[in-house]
Specification:
Elements: E1 2-7, E2 10-15, H1 28-31, H2 40-53, H3 57-70, H4 74-78, E3 85-86, E4 91-94, E5 103-106, H5 109-121, H6 139-152, H7 162-174, H8 179-186, H9 192-200
Antiparallel strand pairs: 1-2, 3-4, 4-5
Helix pairs in contact: 2-3, 2-6, 3-5, 3-7, 7-9, 8-9
Length: about 210
């Protein structure tokens, strides 16, 4: 279709092009505000689903717990080796990627018990989380595991492994831990990456407007 109109005495012609884009029907996914982290209760649901529905339930549940408790990235939890864990002392030596700051974390009782059982199940392997083929679970494999468990747990939005790391950051920020200590716990070189947890922590205003 040609459109002709006059501008300052001169005629200009334009061709109206038919739009090729199709209107998309709104879906649950694009109408929902995407949350970047999981709550502790949601993580417990994931672990429960792993134990009940997974072929390697204890291994998968322990992997989720360790990634959450220590704010590990997918590659960091997949590369975790037994030589980094001192079961007798309750310590985990965390190696960070992306030139992150390494640190030593305490291991709590429930996590310790889960790791001891896992060690009994895989007594000869160097890596903590081993696939059925005998090698370490890959980050892609971990991503698929979390995605599948999210569907089984009927999470209202798609989930991925990095949400476990964010869950750790928000949980510790909500608990009132010092930002500098949280920075080193998560291995951030730049504290600005840590500040977002305290800035966005949903409980930071809980004492406002108290009666």
């Amino acid at each position: 279709m040609r459109i002709t109109y006059t501008v300052g005495g001169a005629k200009a012609k334009f061709i109206r092009m038919k739009s090729t884009s199709k209107k998309r029907t709104p879906t649950i996914v694009n109408l929902t505000v995407k949350r970047r982290y999981l709550t502790q209760r949601e993580i417990e649901r994931l672990m429960d689903c792993a134990c009940k529905h997974g072929r390697y339930g204890h291994r998968d549940a322990t992997m989720i717990l360790v990634a959450y408790r220590h704010g590990l990235r997918a590659s960091e939890v997949c590369d975790l080796q037994w030589q980094q864990i001192e079961l007798s002392e309750g310590r985990l030596h965390v190696h960070r990627v992306k030139n992150g700051i390494p640190s030593v974390h305490p291991i709590r009782g429930d996590e310790m018990r889960a790791l001891r059982k896992l060690r009994r199940d895989y007594p000869r392997d160097a890596h903590v989380f081993v696939s059925e083929r005998g090698g370490p679970i890959s980050p892609i494999g971990f991503h698929r595991l979390i995605q599948r468990l999210g569907e089984v747990a009927k999470m209202p939005f798609p989930i991925h492994p990095h949400m476990l790391r964010h869950a750790c950051g928000f949980k510790l920020a909500n608990d009132g831990h010092d930002t500098r200590a949280l920075q080193h716990y998560l291995g951030h070189k730049n504290i600005q990456h840590t500040v977002r947890y305290t800035e966005m922590a949903p409980d930071r205003f809980k004492d406002f407007w108290r009666d």
